[in-house]
């Protein structure tokens, strides 16, 4: 549900504004709204405020760059971190930042040398042996180069002769990283030699960075030394950085929080109406947190005045939204976070997502074995969350915090429970392993007693398992008998949800006095129900004559639905002239729920094929075949899950977010997320 809000206006003396804003930060309940076009804009101390803000922002940037250079990680708990008075912040920050910046510069230089040594040490050593001290000569130029694997030495020789005649010497030798060569020619013909190399797609080898221009012997000696000792030097610098991060990291994070709080104070002033002696701010506060707001302002007595009044949900576009849901529903707010929050005063569908998304997922997978795998994965996530550990998702590189992992565990738990429960109904354990092992079986009498009322009739067939521990009650793999039942059950979600969505549209339109949305909702609510009833009355379009059988109450309701559509359409035809097309689209939205049946059946068939393959190998080759079959089935199961799992998760989410929520208007209007002014630093860290 959406928390009810109150609008608040707070007026204070200018000289107490920082203390009041700090108190509001500590309370953490007021969502600020900028005051625009206010006559209270004279600011006698604006220049001083700007200088303070610039200094705070400079120090904040310095702290953040220092934290980045250290690679420091914020401690899970900041308890016990002491921070000096505000007047000492600049000196403390600079005292850490300067040596850290120098260390970062040295690390960059050493890393560059290590990388250069890894790439050029061997070629440089080989070339140095080849040319000796010749590259120090003023009359002779030596041009080193690296040969490609496909370079033809004859073609190279011919190119050099074409440009230089006989005025050159060429040497080529193998090094540990490939072939290298050098051309020696007269100093004045250096460019001619380069051109000749270019004709055979070779270029002069230039050493990087500070090694460029060095004689090859000197460069080879330094690169060799770096190659042998550079990584140890770099590891020492990294150890020094880690030690600095461990000793100064917590204080730097605390200083950063304090500076962010200080910058926030100045930012709040820019959002407020300012006079020479006063400051006024406005915002929103949840009704249940008004006592916290009043407690924060109470110490200032008459120096602060605040006024609360109701919000105008019809016209105010800036009312923030905070969702308040039960412990069961709350984790699914993360799923709904994929979209913008609902508009204040409208429908919060998080509980629908929490109820139906795991249920539909379980219906699609419907396998005890898969459900146990999901449950084990969820327990692993929960273990990391309880230990306060994060998890970086492979391939995506996304880091999930312990709080996110805890929410994922709650979601995964319910998805697993429904998957296992549906697995008992479908009689599936990693496909048909449950049947092969005698856990599940098909009973003709039970199935016909349970589903015979639908007109379907099950007859035992060769190959079916008729003995076991648990009878299968929802045999979706019996496609010849059960497919239509499964399809209708899947469509039942759409038959209920799509009209319900348009009913919500009507209700919201009435609540907000929006007659256009009311009549649009009436038209499509009636039209969708009429289309659904038409499918039943005509027996899936097999007998359209039944539409005029007025002895059938369903036919009467169908025509009443079409009448509601016509009346509603005439009322909104100027706004929605294409509403008949939208009606057809909504009929398609109902049919879209068939994907629960289709995707689930495909998943079950693939699991059956894998299980049957493994079992057939066991029956054909005995124990050896069973071992091979088990390993092969396990590998194929992992492969199938990897390819299909994301789709199985997204299908129920898509049905709720598109087919259900679009008609409600959920995606058309939104409100900002409730983001109150909060203090990042603790009370101890905010010492002045």
UniProtKB/TrEMBL annotation:
Residues 119-207 form the V-type ATP synthase subunit I N-terminal domain. The chain crosses the membrane at residues 351-381, 414-433, 481-504, 516-538, 550-570, 590-611, 623-647. It is found in: Membrane. It is a multi-pass membrane protein. It holds the Pfam family V_ATPase_I. Gene3D superfamilies: 1.20.1460.20, 3.30.70.2170, 3.30.70.2750. Keywords: Coiled coil, Ion transport, Membrane, Transmembrane, Transmembrane helix, Transport. Residues 46-73 form a coiled coil. Belongs to the V-ATPase 116 kDa subunit family. This is V-type ATP synthase subunit I. The lineage of its organism: Bacteria, Thermotogati, Deinococcota, Deinococci, Deinococcales.
